């Protein structure tokens, strides 16, 4: 739910010089289509982050398809024995001789050895160099487009013929016009585009000609926040030319919730973010938008409205009257009540005077929810009743995916615990064990999509990936060994308590109420359900908002990425006559190798450094980020 604008400023200097290409050099890449915007020469002193992509080991590539079939074909004896990331790096790494030859060329051209780094995945040599240095190295001239988000490139460049065989391509260099070109990946550490997400999580755009199952539309929940078609169209035309203008979700309006909005009606950044991530992944599959509540309720302070209750009512009629934990139907002090005869904030259209909508929509196979509150915002009985509902949805084969939150171990701001500043604050409904929580990761500046991501921690925004341990729900069986492994090998340095018991029974007052466990002096519940389960990128995401390109982020982005990939997997299963995948946590905890373990970063909050991302499950990034190909292999192998 974050929103900020990237400002990359390059001076508008002009300097003309040309240079003869010495013998022994060959053209390595040439731009096929001219790029009229790249017309301004770059200042010779501007620093460029240079990346030389080295060719993979030839023998490995020749065998790669056979290896893949060995681990993914159901009749193979090695089925499911996926490779570790270390083995992949090792087998595919370029030969030492190749790395040495390219490095020697750089050092003999004046790029000192200490300036050159070899990426963790061994596929890249990286160094920063001035335009002047690079132009002399590659015998070329660099241009930029004078835009705020500057594009930088040359029309062709040269390398010595003796090392050409070792080099895939060099960035920044010839910016391709082809949307699938690897050049699109050069700036993923600055702007996450759909191409970056595909490279990160190992999948391609869906086959536009494959038959689609009409029963598999991705569900997205929104409340009090609206998409605008004009911004979606700008996003599509700038990032995903394969998605036509006008593509939009099917509206399942709940109790007066309406979308889209025009710019004049204050569209929200959350909806734009959700669709900017989901459409590029699932298209041409449809998206179903569950837009909840009339404006009177939708705009009410999140901590005062019950959240999700009217949504559950609408997709499960029995929830309207279901009794559990001392509550039946909607809670008069917490939930929106319909018909709503109170006039709204702006016009009569803001109110929904119809009856409460009960069981009017069928839940989709996968539902993405980038909204949430904190456990201490709501009474425990209320959360338990909602959690039962999630269990019932899971039993029907619905996968509910939720953003873990953007506040680290705290409740908003690095310093804020909202509980006398001394106890970590788990997010809700996240702590319900029957939901899949998605934490946030980022590509560190200077890294490529092929380097391991780290847990997101963005101090300007007070933003880090929410995680921790519930004070309401105990550790579920499917998670027990992962959490035990974490405590055994990476015990966090904080005092803790057991049987955390958030048992508030009246309407909340966060500053006044203290958890039962406070007297025990711990700050987290050692045997609570761990959050999150998995993670995905949630930082520096390209979106369009009010007609302008900008950057957005939050686990709000991570959630639709993960949910969209699950929806793609469901589609593949439907094609072979299998059913949806339902609650995925037991499968993911049983086969964590289908995820990329995140082992760096932390989630500060509550005046502490938070927890650390480590090997295995951790309360920052869970089991890690998706590898679509591996996840698909796993779920296709299951009955
Ligand atoms: C997607 O939605 C559109 C518009 O509602 C509909 O015409 C189309 O049939 C849907 N596609 C599938 C595969 O259900
Ligand atoms: C979609 O769901 C309906 C109702 O469950 C079912 O009758 C139909 O066969 C399904 N269609 C496909 C293509 O699976
Ligand atoms: C799609 O919509 C955008 C934004 O309105 C516009 O700039 C673009 O030209 C449109 N593309 C097509 C193919 O109509
Ligand atoms: C966005 O797309 C529009 C229409 O395709 C194009 O005119 C414009 O230059 C693009 N803007 C950026 C920043 O890519
Ligand atoms: C948005 O503007 C269009 C064109 O001006 C109009 O037809 C439409 O009714 C407006 N939508 C809303 C939700 O106000
Ligand atoms: C809502 O507005 C209408 C028309 O302005 C008015 O007649 C009615 O009394 C109002 N209802 C409430 C509950 O304020
Ligand atoms: C929570 O509080 C209620 C009402 O005070 C009480 O009946 C119940 O036993 C408590 N539950 C736990 C687990 O302490
Ligand atoms: C919550 O408690 C604080 C501290 O006791 C008090 O100042 C505040 O007025 C209370 N707020 C509400 C809404 O009761
Ligand atoms: C972890 O990230 C920090 C910066 O956030 C970086 O300095 C460090 O090298 C990284 N460590 C590993 C093992 O990747």
Automatic annotation (TrEMBL):
Gene3D superfamilies: Peptidase S8/S53 domain
Localization annotation: Secreted, Extracellular space
Binding site for Ca(2+): 597-598, 616, 618
Record flagged with keyword Signal: yes
Gene Ontology CC: extracellular region
Cofactor note: Binds 1 Ca(2+) ion per subunit.
Keywords tagged on the record: Calcium, Hydrolase, Metal-binding, Protease, Serine protease, Signal, Zymogen
PANTHER family: PROTEASE S8 TRIPEPTIDYL PEPTIDASE I CLN2, SERINE PROTEASE AORO, PUTATIVE (AFU_ORTHOLOGUE AFUA_6G10250)-RELATED
Descriptive protein name: Peptidase S8/S53 domain-containing protein
Organism: Podospora appendiculata
């Amino acid at each position: 739910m974050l929103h900020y604008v990237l400002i990359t400023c390059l001076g508008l200097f002009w300097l003309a010089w040309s240079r003869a290409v010495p013998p022994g050099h060959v053209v390595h890449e040439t731009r096929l289509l001219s790029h009229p915007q790249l017309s301004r020469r770059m200042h010779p002193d501007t620093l460029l982050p240079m990346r030389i992509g080295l060719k993979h080991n030839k023998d490995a590539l020749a065998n790669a398809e056979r290896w893949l079939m060995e681990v993914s074909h159901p009749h193979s004896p090695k089925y499911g024995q996926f490779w570790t990331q270390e083995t992949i790096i090792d087998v595919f790494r370029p030969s030492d001789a190749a790395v040495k030859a390219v490095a020697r060329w750089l050092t003999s051209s004046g790029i000192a050895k200490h300036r050159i780094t070899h990426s963790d995945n061994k596929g890249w040599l990286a160094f920063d160099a001035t335009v002047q240095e690079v132009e002399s190295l590659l015998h070329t001239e660099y241009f930029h487009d004078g835009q705020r988000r500057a594009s930088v490139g040359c029309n062709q460049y040269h390398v010595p013929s003796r090392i050409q065989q070792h080099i895939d391509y060099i960035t920044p260099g010839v910016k391709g016009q082809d949307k699938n070109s690897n050049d699109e990946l050069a700036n993923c550490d600055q702007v996450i585009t759909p191409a970056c997400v595909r490279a990160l999580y190992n999948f391609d755009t869906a086959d536009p000609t494959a038959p689609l199952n009409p029963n598999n539309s991705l569900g997205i929940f929104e409340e009090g926040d609206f998409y605008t078609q004009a911004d979606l169209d700008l996003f599509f035309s700038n990032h995903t030319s394969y998605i036509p203008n006008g593509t939009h979700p099917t509206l399942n309006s709940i109790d007066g919730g309406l979308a889209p909005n025009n710019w004049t009606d204050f569209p929200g950044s959350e909806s734009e973010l959700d669709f900017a991530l989901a459409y590029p992944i699932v298209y041409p599959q449809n998206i179903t938008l569950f837009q909840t509540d009339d404006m009177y309720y939708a705009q009410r302070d999140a901590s005062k409205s019950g959240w999700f209750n009217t949504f559950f009512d609408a997709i499960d009629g029995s929830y309207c009257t279901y009794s559990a934990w001392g509550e039946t139907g909607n809670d008069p002090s917490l939930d929106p009540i319909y018909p709503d005869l109170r006039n709204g904030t702006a016009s009569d259209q803001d109110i929904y005077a119809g009856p409460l909508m009960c069981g009017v929509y069928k839940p989709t196979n996968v539902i993405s929810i980038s909204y949430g509150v904190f456990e201490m915002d709501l009474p425990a009985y209320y959360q338990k009743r909602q959690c039962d509902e999630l269990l019932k949805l899971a039993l029907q084969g619905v996968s509910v995916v939720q953003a873990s939150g953007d506040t680290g171990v705290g409740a908003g701001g690095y310093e804020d615990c909202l509980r006398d500043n001394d106890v970590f604050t788990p997010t809700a409904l996240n702590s319900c064990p029957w939901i899949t929580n998605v934490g946030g990761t980022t590509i560190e500046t200077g890294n490529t999509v092929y380097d391991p991501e780290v847990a997101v921690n963005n101090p300007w925004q007070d933003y880090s990936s929410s995680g921790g341990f519930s004070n309401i729900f105990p550790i579920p069986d499917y998670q027990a060994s992962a959490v035990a492994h974490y405590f055994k090998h990476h015990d966090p340095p904080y005092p803790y308590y057991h049987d955390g018991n958030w048992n508030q029974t009246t309407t909340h007052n966060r500053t006044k109420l203290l958890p039962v466990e406070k007297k025990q002096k711990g700050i987290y519940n050692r045997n609570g359900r761990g959050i999150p389960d998995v993670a995905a990128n949630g930082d520096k995401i390209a979106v369009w908002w009010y007609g302008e390109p900008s950057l957005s982020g939050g686990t709000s982005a991570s959630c639709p990425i993960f949910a969209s990939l699950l929806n793609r997997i469901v589609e593949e299963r439907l094609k072979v006559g299998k059913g949806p995948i339902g609650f995925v946590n037991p499968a993911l905890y049983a086969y964590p190798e289908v995820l990329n373990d995140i082992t760096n970063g932390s989630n500060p909050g509550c005046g502490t450094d938070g927890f650390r991302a480590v090997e295995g499950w951790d309360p920052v990034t869970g089991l890690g980020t998706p590898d679509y190909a591996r996840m698909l292999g796993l779920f296709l192998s299951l009955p």
